[in-house]
């Protein structure tokens, strides 16, 4: 029994810390990435599942999906809809060049101790923090010395024996952390998930690095990938070539073959990733990098990810 | 003699073409396909310098008349190799290059007279609605050596002389 409860406590902590992206990959699946003329659009499926592009788990939240037109100006999505297993939206690509569509997120999350109890900072798995915010009785609120989580009108009372966290012990942002907090452990997370759609000749404007977090600059343009030619992509961290970045490359359609065909690759010293394509098709590519150079000074570490979907045509 | 040579040279969309003496000519055969729903294929031919460099489109046949929301140009991406090698940066219609789709038969197309001497690969790609897609490559040397190859489904013989 003791072992079991210890295990449960460990599992609770682990699940709070683990990045959900590892278990269920978020993916964007465009109907095509190559268009002739400017009278067309693409329709995009968006979801998260173990195997890329199989809509069998959860739909993606479309609130943060943005469109960058070929010249970098902001575009828009049409017909957004959320289904049970995947969301969907359209983008009319009415100007020539390469467009960028996707999600860019940055957040700081973690935990701290206060009066012997653990608190969390930041939302968990995209859910809005429960009982978050500064309320009377919450730390830093109007009731100095009051025990956090007690007397606060928001949030249910602590439940005994279920994990370490009182659901009321969640703060929205690091700015709310009280001065007498100890063991503050914060990590910054910057994640990107983009697809690229090219009408007529490809352009490079949307790949111009912003110089923050993990980014990708193609050497082989995403609109020019072909199965018998190696794909080359330079990864950058804070605008500089990122060596040793772990990148997973998975072709879609896993159900219709024996092996997963996933490739676990690493960028070279010049930040360049070399990818061979075993088959033509849509590929899910995701790069992860952790370091200790967060942009937010209160965070000790930084977790970065860059995900894209690439269309590789047959020669 | 005259009547034997001239009919073999079709009129391209741009109008008359005169094959200068000595310039190479490619003949392309579009095979007859026995299917209930037949659409004439989109076909493109282009030259790639053997040592790399920009491809040069020699001809592209597509549905030039279809307009509206889904103009004939929409499906040019189905000629996926040609699209990547240069089609996507070609402004259409292109004088002396683009033209209407062709019925099954054999067509003679002159290669550009001003081609720099050297080694090339002539590529011909065909894509058919409700049908397949095929790419045929023929290495050639300008001036001089021609060559021949053949497709299996969407293209017949491709011969340069």
What this model shows, in words?
The complex is a heterodimer of chains A (315) and B (161). Chain A has one helix at residues 2-17; strands spanning 25-30, 34-35, 40-49, 58-59, 66-68, 78-82, 87-93, 97-114, 117-121, 170-171, 182-199, 214-218, 231-237, 240-241, 246-251, 263-266, 272-275, 281-291, 301-312. With 315 residues, chain A is mainly beta. The radius of gyration of chain A is 22 Å and the shape is globular. Chain B is mainly β and 161 residues long. Helices cover 6% and strands 36% of the residues of chain B. Chain B has helices at 2-5, 80-85, and strands at 25-30, 42-49, 56-62, 98-100, 105-110, 118-127, 133-142, 147-150, 157-160. In chain B, helix 2 (80-85) links the parallel strand 3 (56-62) and strand 4. The longest helix of chain B has 6 residues, at 80-85. Chain B is globular, with a radius of gyration of 15 Å. Residues 1-21 of chain B have low confidence and may be disordered. Chains A and B meet through strand 2 of A and helix 2 of B.
Provide a concise account of the structure shown.
The complex is a heterodimer of chains A (315) and B (161). With 315 residues, chain A is mainly beta.
